[in-house]
Design goal:
The protein is 54% helix and 0% strand. The chain is an all-alpha fold and 92 residues long. Helix 1 runs antiparallel to helix 3. The longest helix has 31 residues. The N and C termini lie far apart (56 Å).
């Protein structure tokens, strides 16, 4: 069993590489999220869609007015590893 220290060092090196890779990916994600603007539709091939013009009406604009801000705040909380706040109606 003389190889165990070598294997342990190799595994530790692999774990450290994976941690660095994940940190780099998280930084890339945060950088992309920090840039506001329109996003391209992923996988859009110009085919049939179920989107209807009624989804663009004033009611939808009011209903989803703060979705972007809420999503951005949730992303920042997640990056800081903070727990999600409890919804207003579910507190004791």
């Amino acid at each position: 069993m003389a190889d165990e220290p070598i294997i342990d060092r190799q595994h530790e090196r692999e774990r450290e590489q994976e941690r660095r890779r994940l940190q780099e990916e998280e930084l890339k994600d945060l950088e992309v999220e920090a840039r506001r603007g329109t996003r391209p539709l992923e996988g859009y091939a110009g085919g049939h869609t179920t989107w209807v013009s009624a989804q663009d009406d004033a009611v939808a604009a009011v209903e989803h007015a703060h979705d972007a801000e809420a999503s951005w705040e949730a992303s920042k909380r997640q990056a800081r590893l903070e727990p999600e706040p409890e919804p207003e109606g579910e507190r004791d």
